[in-house]
Amino acid sequence: MSDYWRKKYEEAFGRFTGVMGARAFCLGRQALAILLKALGVESGDKVGVCSFTCLSVAEAIKVCEAIPVYLDVDKHLCIEPQEILRQEPGSLKVVILQHTFGIPGQLEELLLACEKVGAKVVEDCAHSLGCSWKGEPLGKFGEGAIYSFQWGKPYSTGQGGMLTVNSKKLLEDVDSQIRELASPASTKSELILECQRQIYSIVEGLRLESYLRYMYTTLRDIGSYKLECDFRFYQGYPRLAGEMTAKTGSKQLENWPKLQQIRRQNTETVEECLNKAGLALWPKPDEADVTMLRYPVLIAHKSRIVQQARKQKLDLGGWYMSPVHPLQAEDLLKVNYRIGSCKRAEDMISRLVHLPTGVGLNKKIFEAMVRIISQN
Ligand SMILES: Cc1ncc(COP(=O)(O)O)c(C=O)c1O
Prior knowledge:
This protein is α/β, with parallel strands linked by helices. 45% of the residues lie in helices and 15% in strands. Strands 1-10-9-6-5-2-4 form a 7-stranded mixed β-sheet. Strands 8-7-11 form a 3-stranded antiparallel β-sheet, with no helix packed on it.
């Protein structure tokens, strides 16, 4: 029975993104791990990854026993194409092109660079649902792509992930990895997630979303939130999306045009406020049609701004806090990141905040955020 709803969700997602096939998981990182395995990534292989990323991505690489190779960013916070060209041909099995905050960076140069060094391309579309390049949806430019539907993503099912592929052969390989390694969602975690979704929709209805984020960040800061860096690919690590999550996902997908419209409208309002305050707008490539997930602004006094925003319970994001968010100091070494190795990413991270674009926001909120930025 649960297969029925998951398959319906996968078909709808595949139709929506115009790909050969889609498979739904409990988390985006599980979708990525299965996709990497289906692409032949094995122990000791190197996988190129953006140096403005998060633990989920590094985890997916590490559970395949592969080695993440961090590539420095360009002005869009996507991989700088020269960074790929600097790698020895044949040394990278796959490069994950992350479309940060919805922007695909210098996509054509990136694809060309991957081809030159002989790396397969996976697109990380966790931030970029509904975005396109020269009219073609993102997710269609590599071998396959992954999406995340965690809180704060273009649309959310609380937790959730999807992989999509662009060839029949890869879909067969993905399905064979799923048969071998994946388990169905556990009923207990499906029920917990469903409760969280109900609570979240009440909180969202009451416009209290930023309070939730504030609580989450505070809990993490005082240490009651523990980071695991245990990279084992045990039987059942990847779990297929359960029935309730698949039903929620299908509904969210139907609702997407409305959500997208809200994000686009809010992005215009943010740009209006930034313009009025004389602050720089974020660069977008002309070829891309972008629905921004968050709107970045480079500033001088990050910690002051983030602290003031938190005092006012405003969701002015300061993350990513490190090249592999939220890892710090020696934890970065556990995912093979050496501090100082991607200087541009580290510099931008130290000067970056970003505004939300999702539901429940209005001009007054954006003006309050921009006021904090421009007063500092
Ligand atoms: C860039 C990026 N890729 C992939 C993911 C996958 O995340 P998850 O496994 O939490 O769904 C995320 C989620 O935060 C992300 O931000």
